[in-house]
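Posting for a labmate who doesn't have an account.
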Amino acid sequence: MTNSTRRSTLVLSAATIGAAALSPLLAPQRAQAAEGKAEGKGEAAGEPLVAELTNVVLPIARNGALVNYVFVTLKIRMTDLNAATYVREQHFFVRDGITRATGRSPIPEGNGPNTFDQAAIVRVVTQTVNAMKPGLRVARVSLEQVAFMRR
């Protein structure tokens, strides 16, 4: 056994012994951390009917001309658990369908710069998801973390 191998073995052994000695001391902290994670996940686990799509890019148009893009996080609440599971598992197809639909008819600009017609987004998302598979029904669509592309 070479000196470097022997040194590595001793360091690894010391680390293992140290971890074993500290394990009982860290157990209460781990339990509290796990409870905190469970509480944080409670929000996600408490909403099993919600599918979340992050960083969806939607074009904004004025009089048929593209003026900007908006980046949004879509929270889609489905009517039943199977539908929500399907949307979560097929999120790439859902995102692609929404992108294609808004590419054909962009979201109208609102009354001023960096505004948009939120009802149009909700309508497009609802129609796209409902048309993906028979039995899918969207209960509600909410937009979060809205950011416009910098010009």
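Reply:
Got it, the structure tokens are right above this. Strands lie at 50-62, 65-78, 107-108, 138-148.
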